[in-house]
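Re: your question from the hallway

Yes, I did run it. Sequences:
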Amino acid sequence: MTTPAIRATGLRKQFRQADGTPVLAVDDVDLTVHPGEIVAFLGPNGAGKTTTVDMLLGLTAPDAGTVEVYGTSPGEAVRQGRVSAVMQTGGLLNDFTVAETVRAIAALHGRSDRVEVVIERAHLAELAGRRVEALSGGERQRLKFALALLPDPDLVVLDEPTTGMDVGARQEFWQAMRADAALGRTIVFATHYLAEADEFAERTVLMNHGRIVHDAPTTDVRAAYGGRTLTFRPPAGAVGADGIDADWLGQVHRALEPLGVTDVDVSAASLEAAFLALTADDQPIGAAR
Amino acid sequence: MTTALSAGTGAAATRTDDGVRPAPRPRMATYARLDLRRQLRDRIGMFFVVGLPTFMYLVFGIGSADPVGSGNVAMYVMISMAAYGAVTATTSVAGSAATEQVMGWGRQLGLTPMRPVAFVAAKAAVAMAVAAVPVLAIFAIGAATGARGHWSDWVLAGALVWLGSVHFAVYGLAVCLAFRGPNAPGIASGMIVILAFLGNVFTPMSGFMLDLGRFTPLYGYVALARFPLTDGWLPVGGRDPLWLPVANVLAWTVIFGLVALWGVRRSRART
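Structure:
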């Protein structure tokens, strides 16, 4: 058994709001991630994803619990260049150019030899001379991704990595990530885009109110809470100007067979159903549908 | 190791074993050089650091051959303006360092092997390099346009202006940690203009304004820088004993230091 990439036990973190009321951002989180896994942290805003990520990276100290990254403290793993991250907010200086930003952070990692490699990997070559302030949101994310690749880390943590990207940029970004995962990197990413977890992660950790509410292979999460859905197209005569004919719909309920249903399509339910079921407030898990 | 890691199969092999990687050493000199170039490229910032004090020297200093202490008025104005430029430089470099930290660059740096002490050292080196620019430029212009004094006045005043400007790096940190946000370095340098008037830097003051000015932070630093030339004599008559500017500098260093410490504590508490 190899050392896990991440082993966190009993993580807890409390913040004080502006008006002084304490908020429990992360409440008793246990998590183990093995080398080579691709794990999605899924949850609505305020679920505690960013705080958890910060503790995994050693940027925030937990109030209780322990974190080990490759068997050492997060800070030590960062110093060894085994872990890096793409952060959600801030993190860039506007008056550096793209190339200067990469060179500056490369110097701090002592890895100036990797400047060319990561610029190419993040498709930044044409933007190298541009000032950071002139970049679009998606281009900024790509730059941060390039910075994260500088130490050639074993584990990359991405916090809402595709924020501000359009559909095309998002696809391109995940393509680059997939290529990287194929090289054996461990990838943990926080997102509130269900499709990203659904498409990219092998394992999904659902968080809500600072707790892990479900942790399983992505297909299991989908299957356990979404079940299977049957989709069919009604005959043309049953569809009027104001939607599907109610009488006809009543008939559907009574009997399926003789109604001339064409083009039946059976598909897996979306992860969205599972997500809504698990994160709905004041409802027992699984009872939303 | 480098090529193997980025090559694929080699990467997988290295990744699964538990061997400790050798921690690479941060190259602070490269970082400091890039950062220095970024600061020097900032045209508006450099206008206040070099352009404005040079202009003021040209207006008030050139051709003023009246004697002051062991030199002349041009020399007196030259030292004052170089001091203003140096202080603006350290204030804005230190201030922007604090603001960068608060605005999120600090998180990026937190994910590198660099230690915070090394960051402070690099920023201090950048601040002193930027501060040297107005001192060298204005002293050179002064030497070419009739500023006269004993050779020891040149050396001591230059050293005091340059090294003493460190004191305002602490001020820049304090102000930017107190007023957080992207405008904080601008506020800090803007306040330097007011403090320069109050501190007897731009125009000689007298009476009540002079009495008040003695308690403001730029007064002690500039008076100390001019001390080798003036021996404490003021343009409007009267004389400051040496302990007065020294006490001023020490007192304000303590005050700025305490405010900066409080600011650091406060910014830590948030995260």
